[in-house]
Automatic annotation (TrEMBL):
Residues 80-156 are annotated as: Disordered. It comes from Sorangium cellulosum (Polyangium cellulosum). This is Zinc-finger domain-containing protein. Residues 97-145 have a biased composition (Basic and acidic residues).
């Protein structure tokens, strides 16, 4: 059930402004009560919690892109539903171009992690190539063994 009305719109803004405190569990209780009844704020809290988990999983050396905060705020602003919108409207609010921009921003922030994992991925591909070559060699050996068996049977 989506919360509507003048008071809840103000609380939506407070949830957005105090999102870090909401995620940390240090926000005032009335914000949590509002989130429980407001689909848009509940979705916002869920998305922010997922982003915080991803950043925490990236490790201590994680460094977001220089314009990460500004890009995130632009995306939040673009996704803000109009007054009286239902939760379904929130899902349709982010245009595809905004999604691509946010994805590009996130990728720039992941460049450090990608560089770390790039060598591991290259090593894995090299290992797959070596395994494929070993399988091909084994097949060739089986073919040669089969030919030798056929020669022995025919006396050739």
């Amino acid at each position: 059930m989506s919360a509507t009305g003048t008071g809840s719109a103000g609380l939506c803004g407070e949830v957005e402004e105090q999102l870090a405190e909401v995620i940390d569990g240090t926000a005032r209780p009335s914000l949590y009560e509002h989130i429980a009844g407001c689909d848009a704020c509940r979705d916002l809290r869920h998305d922010a919690a997922r982003a915080a988990e991803a950043a925490a999983a990236a490790g201590a050396d994680f460094r977001p892109a220089d314009d990460f905060a500004e890009a995130l705020l632009r995306r939040i602003e673009a996704a803000r539903p109009s007054e009286g919108a239902t939760s379904g409207a929130v899902l349709r609010a982010v245009p595809e171009a905004g999604h691509r921009e946010a994805t590009d921003d996130a990728r720039r922030g992941e460049a450090t992690a990608d560089a770390r994992h790039g060598e591991a991925a290259a090593d894995a591909r090299d290992s797959d190539v070596r395994a494929g070559e070993a399988i091909d060699d084994a097949r060739d050996s089986d073919v040669r063994a089969g030919e030798a068996t056929a020669d022995a049977r025919t006396g050739g």
